[in-house]
Amino acid sequence: MIQAGHLASSASVTPSLTEGPYYKSGSPEQANLYQDGMAGTKLIVTGYVYDTSCQPVANAWLDFWQADANGNYDNSGYTLRGHQYTDANGRFQLTTVIPGLYPGRTEHIHVKVQAPDGQVITSQLFFPGVTQNDSDGIYNASLPLAITKTSGDLEAQYNFVVPAS
Ligand code: FE
């Protein structure tokens, strides 16, 4: 017998992708990585962290790092690096800029996400419609941001799924 409630009661864990060479531990706790005068287009990403039973995960750790609009990472400091925790509803919001291209890579934002006491998932978020997606060997078509607003600042949405802890 088909139990309808089971049709949407589980989800696959967000695919893992390479950390790459530019991760730095110890990022500051900050959901806003954007600074006045920063080059590039401001980007606001909102979403939720769920477990594989589709339950929102409160207090999940999210650590974001990315290149600036010119494709450069800050390897001496923590510009465009920061961690945050989901709220009681499992929600997060990241304010940043659209990352630039650097050789071999399409636009991407690196992320680590972890439920409290759970397994760390390392992945990358991508932007739909970027020409270089097709020539980037790391690009994963299942990880595009859903763009929700393009006039002025860019707004996008993404939900993570982590292993149940
Ligand atoms: Fe990168």
Number of domains: 1
Residues in β-strands, percent: 25-35%
Question: Unreliable segments (pLDDT under 50, ≥5 consecutive)?
Answer: 1-6
What are the secondary-structure elements, in order, as H or E? EEEEEEEEE
Quaternary organisation of the protein chains: single chain
Q: How would you sum up this structure, described in words?
A:
The chain is mostly beta strands and 165 residues long. It has one domain: Protocatechuate 3,4-Dioxygenase, subunit A (Sandwich), CATH 2.60.130.10. It has no helices and 9 strands. The protein has strands at residues 42-51, 61-65, 81-85, 91-97, 108-114, 121-126, 146-149, 154-157, 160-162. The protein is globular. 29% of the residues are buried. Fe (iii) ion binds next to strand 5. Fe (iii) ion (FE) binds at residues 20, 22, 105, 108, 110.
Brief overview, please?
The protein is mainly beta and 165 residues long. The protein contains no helices and nine strands.
